[in-house]
Amino acid sequence: MDWLRENLWVAWLSIAGVLALAELASLDFTLLMLAAGAFTAAGVAAVFPGLLWLQIVVGLLTAGAMLAAIRPMIVRKIHDGKELKTGSAHVIGRTGTVVKAIHPDGGGSIRLGGELWTARPYDEVSTILPGTRVEVMSIDGATAVVYPVPEPVRHELDTHPGLNDPEPGPQSAPGDPQ
pTM score, two decimals? Predict the structure, then answer.
């Protein structure tokens, strides 16, 4: 019995290992936090082999703190990321430029990023001319279903020479020493 009391850290370490391995099946991060508590209890058992109550208290406090403070941050970080779009879904919503006129009967093409896609208009009557900016509404097989996007409105003041020049620096008055 004395051997078990002096080597209780091995039991705590085994519990931590089992919980960590079980975490691989659940991927909920709860068992991992409990494993951290068991791991710290193993450390206390190695330093204070006869104080089982201290090992339990430290293990529970560590597991509780991990569950309350660390787990929510990890879960938020994992679940707040952008959704991974695979296949052709990654082009939906992107804008491109018409390279070959797009007719309702097909045969048109657009440049999207650096790729050339066959395209057709979203409706059955539109013809979209080359050079027009379009947005991808959906993908039908290997064909992008697109609609024209209006060019951004530019005000004549946006192109007035000198109006958008950077502000001049402080000017020295005539006769001021430089």
Answer: 0.47
